[in-house]
Amino acid sequence: MDSSTISGGLASIFREDLQIDVSRFTPDSHLIDEVGLDSVAFAVGMVAIEEKLGVVLSEEELLTCNTLGDLDAAIRNKAG
């Protein structure tokens, strides 16, 4: 899976599953403080990433992601 597919899929998950418009954020935007994710959003996101991108992130892997860029990189590494 190439990087544009992952980035597009991640943007789609934020938009469709979490109702968050990521176009106003950067890769350095903090997932909790700036994007506004809470524990429920992390759980929904984790399931959506698996279903839509075919990448399984553990809770620990997801919780180490502080920014949108970190999350994108974690998905790329697992999709590798």
In short:
This is Acyl carrier protein. The chain is 59% helix and 0% strand. With 80 residues, the chain is mainly α.
Can you walk through the features of this model?
This protein has helices spanning 3-17, 39-53, 59-63, 68-79. The protein has 80 residues and is an all-alpha fold. It has a single domain, classed as Non-ribosomal Peptide Synthetase Peptidyl Carrier Protein, Chain A. Helix 1 crosses helix 2 (39-53). It is globular, with a radius of gyration of 11 Å. 19% of the residues are buried.
- The proportion of residues in beta strands is under 5%
The span between the termini is 8 Å
Backbone CA Rg: 11 Å
**H-E string:** HHHH
CATH H-level name... which superfamily?
ACP-like
Mean pLDDT: 92
CATH architecture, by name, is Orthogonal Bundle
CATH class equals Mainly Alpha
Largest sheet: number of strands, sense, barrel closure: none
Percentage of residues in helical conformation? 55-70%
Count up the domains. 1
How large is the count of helical segments? 4
Question: Low-confidence parts, pLDDT < 50 over ≥5 residues?
Answer: none
